[in-house]
Write a structure and sequence with these properties.
200 residues; mainly beta; Jelly Rolls; 56% strand; UCP022704; DUF1349 domain-containing protein; DUF1349
Length: 200
């Protein structure tokens, strides 16, 4: 049984409103601002906190899912799901263009950012679902495309006492004109176990 519920967009708040948004049926189209990004210091030496994220409450024991079309063609075009406490504590996970192919990855930030990637060239142009599940002191990130099983992306620490939000995000660090189509934004109960994953 699917216990997830669609998030009413009126119950979510933009962190850094994008250049434009539009609703087409049940889809949300987001146009990113030029040179928008989320990153803190590591290797690059800069802090960027002007990417776009539409956040709803993300308490312990809950999960948030976002589905979007991974249709990117410029370096660092990216979209997926963000978990956010504040400017120093956040996670972004999804698909990003790097080395000429779509990459499934995550950035976990606790003061400083890290970055992990794995190439998923066959995900180009397909709907990708990213799920963040919060239990205890951890957030588990999983992702998949239709007809394929969930993939574990990241297990990251998050204080049980932290007040967090989660929802779709996108960034366009190198260009103008990136538009991302989000087709689903839901919330529901957290996964029952680390290795079992979601029921559906």
């Amino acid at each position: 049984m699917d216990h997830r519920q669609e998030v009413d967009l009126n119950d979510a708040t933009w962190l850094n409103p994008p250049l434009a948004t539009a609703v087409e049926g049940t889809d949300l189209l987001v146009t990113a601002r030029e040179e928008s990004d989320f990153w803190r210091t590591t290797s690059y030496g800069f802090v960027r906190d002007d990417g776009h994220a539409l956040l709803t409450a993300f308490p312990g024991g809950s999960a948030v899912e976002v589905t979007f079309l991974a249709l990117f063609d410029a370096l660092y075009d990216q979209a997926g799901l963000m978990v956010r406490v504040d400017a120093h504590t956040w996670i972004k996970a999804g698909v990003e263009m790097s080395d000429g192919v779509p990459q499934l990855g995550a950035v976990v930030t606790h003061g400083l950012s890290d970055w992990s990637l794995a190439p998923v060239p066959d995900w180009h142009g397909r709907p990708v679902t990213v799920r963040a599940s919060r239990v205890g002191d951890a957030v588990t990130i999983r992702a998949r495309v239709p007809e394929e099983p969930w993939r574990m992306v990241r297990l990251a620490p998050l204080s049980p006492d932290a007040v967090a939000g989660a929802g779709p995000f996108c960034c366009s660090p190198r260009r103008a004109g990136l538009q991302v189509r989000f087709t689903r934004f839901t919330r529901g109960p957290a996964d029952t176990g680390l290795h079992e994953g979601p029921d559906a």
